[in-house]
Amino acid sequence: MKALVYEGVETLVFRDVPAPLPAAGEHLIKIEAVGICGSDMHAYLGHDARRPAPLILGHEAAGIISGGAKDGLRVTVNPLVTCSTCPACTSGRENLCPTRQIISMKPREGAFAQFIAMPESNLVEVPQDVPLAKAALAEPLAVSWHAVRLATEALHHASDRRALVIGGGAIGLAAALALRAMNVPDVTIVEPNAARSAFLSRTGEHVVAEAEGQYPLVVDAVGFAVTRATASALAAPGGVIAHVGLGEDKGGLDIRRMTLQEISFIGTYTYTAKDFRDTAQAIFEGRLGPLDWFEMQALSDGAQAFADLRAGVIAAPKIVLNPWP
């Protein structure tokens, strides 16, 4: 099969690789759509020790089961593989499983390929009327759904339904969509990139280059020191910061202000299995909007897509690649 292989810093090669062999309880899936994630970009730039070259990246995928009793079934893929028996898994917090694996990290190759193998429990059937390119958005949308769910559950200001989202990429936009789906109607997105800001504004989002004021709920979908500083400055007393971005490890938080104003900080990672299923269902029911803010490209052109993202010349929040142009 063909795959887009990460072979070193800023080096991706579209080439032949061995096709995966499904283990017991797994299905072979023909990938029809796979999104580029910020974590893929971190690996591409050599900033993710968890993803050493050579490796097939990509974990935001949807496709069609190939072979077996469920041949032809359209599915979206939960890329997080867990043990199902540890205390985290049995309490519904699978994302904290100590032996968790995710495709696009060793030992599981990713979905920038024509085929992957996944356990049946990680697959969610996609209705015939839902394009698989939209179904592939379930993974990044679930990341934000999980973060927003945790934040709204922790929010004390039940009557003040306003939120600030820092970052207008796919995770930030997904957070805005999830917030409205969870009855937080007043959402502002901070996005300094002019092209991306204009794109988001055309989708109906309220976008500003620089935020001011205070908000009971703040989502940091970037995760740099400067965005954490913004989050801790703009969270209202008694408010909640949900931290999703993994831009850099340290710095930014005003711990003194957060302590004196009782601002809650919640680190959020991926999603539970239920969050993923709930997000997929919200997509199928149209509760997250038209989801028309991604750009389709061929997997064979993936190296150029990464270079364009690196250069900041792509306005769309998400690039989705097709392995079968």
Structural features:
325 residues, alpha/beta, Quinone Oxidoreductase, Chain A, domain 1, Rossmann fold, 18 strands
Give the topology.
Blueprint: E1 2-8, E2 11-16, E3 26-35, H1 38-44, E4 55-56, E5 60-65, E6 74-77, E7 80-81, H2 87-90, E8 101-102, E9 115-119, E10 123-125, H3 132-135, H4 138-154, E11 162-166, H5 170-181, E12 186-190, H6 194-202, E13 206-208, E14 215-220, H7 225-234, E15 235-243, H8 255-260, E16 264-267, H9 273-284, E17 294-298, H10 302-311, E18 318-322
Parallel strand pairs: 11-12, 11-14, 12-13, 14-15, 15-16, 17-18
Antiparallel strand pairs: 1-2, 1-4, 3-5, 3-9, 3-18, 5-6, 6-10, 7-8
Helix pairs in contact: 4-5, 4-9
**End-to-end distance:** 14 Å
Tell me the helix content: 25-40%
Using DSSP, what is the number of strands? 18
Low-confidence stretches: none
The quaternary organization reads as: single chain
- Roughly what is the average pLDDT, rounded to an integer? 95
Instruction: Determine the strand fraction and express it as a percent band.
Output: 25-35%
Radius of gyration: 19 Å
Structural domains: how many:
2
| Succession of helices and strands | EEEHEEEEHEEEHHEHEHEEHEHEHEHE
Name the CATH homologous superfamily of the largest domain.
Medium-chain alcohol dehydrogenases, catalytic domain
